[in-house]
Design goal:
The complex is a heterodimer of chains A (303) and B (215). Chain A has 303 residues and is an alpha+beta fold. Chain A is 20% helix and 28% strand. Chain A has seven helices and twelve strands. Chain A has helices spanning 29-32, 95-100, 104-107, 109-130, 170-180, 205-212, 228-232; strands at residues 40-43, 48-55, 75-83, 85-94, 150-151, 157-158, 195-201, 235-239, 249-253, 259-274, 279-292, 298-301. Chain B is built from one helix and 15 strands, in the order βββββββββββαββββ. Chain B has one helix spanning 138-142, and strands spanning 12-16, 26-30, 47-48, 52-55, 61-63, 79-84, 87-88, 93-94, 98-99, 113-119, 123-128, 148-152, 164-171, 177-182, 197-202. The radius of gyration of chain B is 17 Å and the shape is globular. Classes of the chains: A alpha+beta (303), B mainly beta (215). Chain A binds chain B through residues 1-4, 6-12, 14, 87, 92, 120, 123-124, 126-127, 130, 136, 241, 243-245, 274, 276-277, 279, 281, and chain B through 1-2, 5, 8, 10-13, 21-22, 24-25, 49-50, 80-86, 94-97, 116, 118, 137-139, 186-187, 189-190, 192-193.
Chain lengths: 303, 215
Amino acid sequence: MSAGVFESVIAHALKATLDEIIDDPTDGYEQKAIFPKWCDIGKMTDAYEDDLEMGGPGLASEVNEGQELPSGTIREGYLTRYIARKFGLKILVTDEAIEDNKYPEVIKAARRLKRALWKTADIDATNMLARAFNTAYVGGDGQPLCSSAHTLPNGGTFSNVMATPMSPSRAAFIIARSQVMKFPGHDGTIEGADIEAVLHPVEQWAVWEGLVKSSKAPEAGNFNEINVAYTHDFKLIPIKYWVNTTTNYIFQTDVDNGLQFRWRRRPRSTSWNENATEVGLYGISARWARGWSDPRSVLGCQA
Amino acid sequence: MTDNMRAYAGFKWVRSLVGSTPPSSIPLRVASGYAGSINGGSGSIDINIGDPVRLLSTGYAVHAAGNEAAANAAEDIYGIVVAVLPYWDGQVKTFGNRLPYGTAYGSVLERQSYVLVYPAAGHIWEIEVDDATTATTEAGYTALIGENCDHRLTTGSEPKTNCLLDISTHVATTAQWRIHNISQSVANQDFSGAYVRLYVTCNETQLAPFVTAGI
């Protein structure tokens, strides 16, 4: 639609001659949303929220008899700011189109808008993954979600990308999990985490299912070895809106404060009339912020 | 890299540059037998919702050609089609979401074809770009804001204009549309892909007082 719903936009619905209206579903889009499966869903109460990284004091020292204890300290790291962004859409419907339309399911502006907004939320969240390796879209530490140079409060950096990109495989999982199990804490010492899920474009569904559902190693000539991807039992989360790649994937770890989706205001519908032009307007908007506070929550592979 | 999702063709009204009231539609007549004069005069193209049109000195509206044809490139635009009034199909006046090419009503004014347009000037329009090479990043598109561009009408397998913004024509000198901003739609998911959406305002319009000469 160019501007709104005029009678010509719904020309075939002006007389009751149709058997079926073929259209996208609008029911249950809130329940169909994918991002709650891989984002921490929260609420915001202010225009913005800040998450602060703190690190320290690191490790203790050996102390000789009668010697004063060495001092340690803590240090602030980066600040991650979540600013609520507003998304919205309106549909304009002329009074004539409303009066003459014979099929309520043709216009159903409010339901269409609700579908549009939930889908928008899903795609906006997915953009965190689609842009995970793009240095133009960074988090609080100035690095993209997946980077080899994430900062540590006491200096130095760590990586949450696979050094050697690998296609989905048992070997890739083994190397990735080993790397995750040695992730540094905020004090820079080895803390470790574990893999809970893999987020991937839907094109990879078959290879991941074959990988995690085989009790034995799925490589030819190696069928007697146990499949550690099977025994570890991590979740598979195919994301259909991740469309900028078919080869990248991201392991999600059990580290807290990872991928966040925070509602400032959940979707709110409204409608009003413009009396001068006699059009009805249906609107919907919501406010949310999304991002990540701790990049240890993921390990990315740009294969 | 992947192409961005497409949801419509042509120009989509986003909002007015001033105020929040939807514009008042303007009826424009279309000549009997109009066949869609894109690509330098040939066509067999319907007038579709979202198409840019211009006014002739005859008082009839036709497609406003873009950069697709050297013969009549970058014509001034009067408005964007938002609706088609019932047209004469040879037997009765028919409701339709497009005005088919060749719609003929002879000299019977009761059967005359009309399209409703929103004036091109004074509004922000959303339009998809036609290539994925002129700019490939958000920063690349940002650098084009403030420059001018022509649109491009192309024929496909259907009688539609498939109107896109000919982004490779971006210049600091005169062109049909001013790049106002990058669309804030999340459909702009991958700036390295095709069909990135931009907000534009009309730069070359037939409307007074932007053009003081008569048509």
